[in-house]
Amino acid sequence: MTNKLSGLGTAMITPFQADGRVDFEALARLVELQIDGGTDYLVVLGTTGEAVTLTEREKHEVVDFVVNTVDSRLPLVLGLGGNNTAAVVETVNQWSETLSRHFAAILSVCPYYNKPSQEGLYRHFCALAEASPVPVILYNVPGRTGVNLLPETVVRLHKACGSRIAGIKEASGNIEQIKHLIDLMRSYPDFLVISGDDGIAAQLMDAGAAGLISVAANAFPREFGRIVNDHNHDLQQRFSPMVSLLFKEGNPAGIKTVLSFQGLINNVLRLPLVTNSAQVQEEIKQELSALKSCL
Fold first, then answer.
1. What is the pLDDT of residue 293?
2. Which superfamily is assigned to 7-230 in CATH?
């Protein structure tokens, strides 16, 4: 598990045609870009993939397509989460056969909106770990969920569930909290503390993180592989303006703008998300031009 999901993971976007349907031709191009770029694993149906706007049928079609296109060339992680524990467990049960056959883990976000306590988070993830046929990677992103999964709760979960809770994607943006978690988990070398922030990946790798689940790597897999695997602070710094632009008007609007400028996708999102403003698109275009020297 640790070897499979260390290094660079890419949180894949879902490309859409002009009429809003899933663009499978573009999705195939994106998968091959990741494989050619040396990405270590792919995350499918996450936040960046606009999974909440896909129908159940579309989710299954996207998963089947990615599984068939990857053809075992890379490990896969499936995004599955929600704020109703019983419903999430039922969803895991429905995906059980696919997970067992094709996925190394699931990535599950902290329950959002209803703001559970640390005890509620603990019980939620214990129930999920018990139901899942593959290990669970926790996903802490307080800016989206309104709750912060504390390091002590993560330790408690791993102690209770063992390898069924295999890691965490930490996107709190709180470097001190993440470093504290890394220190607490040093006694559990198989547990993965993964950066969920493109902008601080090299810094967290220095501190002992296992890798990065990246948005920017959709367009720049080779470069972010170097940032992660080589702890390349100079390259991290060079990409800092682009990373800021990617999230200036929300994710995945920024990365879809980049990919559209690269000729890989149509710049289409599903409501309530919309494309970047003309001003931000121009800023991204200029930064892409400036980045050519290191691409």
1. 74
2. Aldolase class I (3.20.20.70)
